[in-house]
Amino acid sequence: MRQRPTPHPIGRVRGAAPRTGARLLPALLSVPLLASCATDELFQAPEITEGGPQVPYKTVFRGVEDETLLDLLEGSSRAVELQDRPPATPILLERRGERDVEQLRTVLRSEGYYEATVAVEVDTASDPAQLVFQIDPGPPYRIESVEVTPTEGAEAAQLPDAAALGLTPGRRARAPEIEAAGDRLLLHLQQTGFPHPVIAERRVVVDRRTRAVRVSFRVDPGREARFGPTTITGLERVEESYIRQLIPWRQGERFDIDRFTELRNTLLSSNLFATVRIEGAKTVEADGTLPVTLELSERKRRTITAGVGYETDVGFSVETGWEHRNLFGRGESLQLNAIASPITLSAEAGFRKPAFLRLDQALLAELRVAHDEPDAFTSDNAETQVLIERWLRPDMVAAAGLGLRYARIEENGTNTDEFGLVFLPVRFRWDTSNDLLDPSRGGRLSANLAPFQDVLGSGVRFLRSEAAYTHYLQVFDDPRLVLAGRGAVGSIVGADRDDVPADERFYVGGGGSLRGYSFQKAGELDEDGDPVGGRSFLELSGEVRVQTTETVGFVVFVDAGRAYSSTLLDFDEKLLFGAGAGFRYFTPIGPLRFDVAVPVNPRDSDDGFQLYVSLGQAF
Question: C or N: which end of the chain has fewer Cβ atoms within 10 Å?
């Protein structure tokens, strides 16, 4: 916490108005005594010093090598905060620094440096002047012992040891860690059956002779409790029986505060509710149960979406969608989407029934009807899948089921084939990223596997598999600098390339793949310059993302990859590279992406550049 300068007593004139130049000026005119009070408070505001003499300065901290400690000191310094409002004289600058001395000592003590000294001086020979804090932290004090005891007459409870509290002996005695240890102590008790624990006494004894710190907590766990009846309020269209099905505890089980967090996350992730509030009663009932109240506020059930994109090699695309999130009152969702572009006209529908047979499972049904016409082929197709999806952990999900696909495909403008494919899709997704459209931390792993069998005459069978991993690393906060990397690989085994339906082969190139190369054309081309697809592929991408303001950011990137005719990656074929830069405009719903890319090692048939416009990052 930053310590603010103590207001001058006369500064309370006019109803204790804020101490700004605009408010102090009338007080200066009406109370002449203030004119002799040469306080920094009266001269720090721009309205008073503007146009008059000023002493621009830079704040310097010497004697501190620990970057984390240095950041804390700078963040608590009023002199650092006021650097853009310099005082009128060196004397006022020195007084500004003197006001920081005690606050800096407080920060050092909170970090375990109880013998720290702080001195301040002004160096006017420098340009600009320097306000120098000379700091000697001294030796760190370390934790010698940690004791946790119950209050007299308290109910028996299993109390955590020092390691569980994060205060093992020998650690530097940092006040934030001691404070956090108290929070961990209370949380431990709430996780083990005691909903209302209280720390009756927290003692920190500093022994300056041995430079040791002894920490002790006396805690009253309160009454042990079991979950009592749950009252649900605020429901309008969602059935109460469905919500009760999601409650992760049973009445009579030992109380555990983590079950509240689990239920809150489940309800919010359902997209059915705008707010979720879970609260236990203030007191435990005579029978040892704790009644629970669940207050809910439902979201609107329907959403309409629309989007527009542009890519040089494809043209404009338009997408629209409609979603109903509570179709039959138990969280069933129905999504309808339509996409129109020069290469695709498609209509899609998806139905999801949560808590299917078990709480961590859902039933999915998907349907897509499309006319696809990229350079590689023309395909009129319809596909449906029915899958069972199971959450393995909060950030990991797997699904498996049955799929049917009909496709009438024309290649090279002459050959037309029909396929009726039966397949068994298996999906896996692990997502630890922190944002859907603009992630800055974590990663995403996805894998898809499906064996296919044609039942319309060709008899072709093959196994198609692919996997991709993306990782995000935030290096700086201001300006925000994020490093993002992506790799993807795939393979088709069991059939020759020309026997695999053209719309099931792998293609590389385009805005979501290898930028700088035309859509699907980073691979083998036929005599007309059209892609023929492959049985394996590789994609690699790296980006440096810089957000300079709340709404503006820039990106530089390098992509590499290609599709291979062989089942395994064939590095005898030249890997293709693309590079470019982009602009990001950040909106409440995600960043707008403008990317320009060029092929680094172009072939004769490749264009000189490609432009991509869409919502969300490239990956």
Answer: N
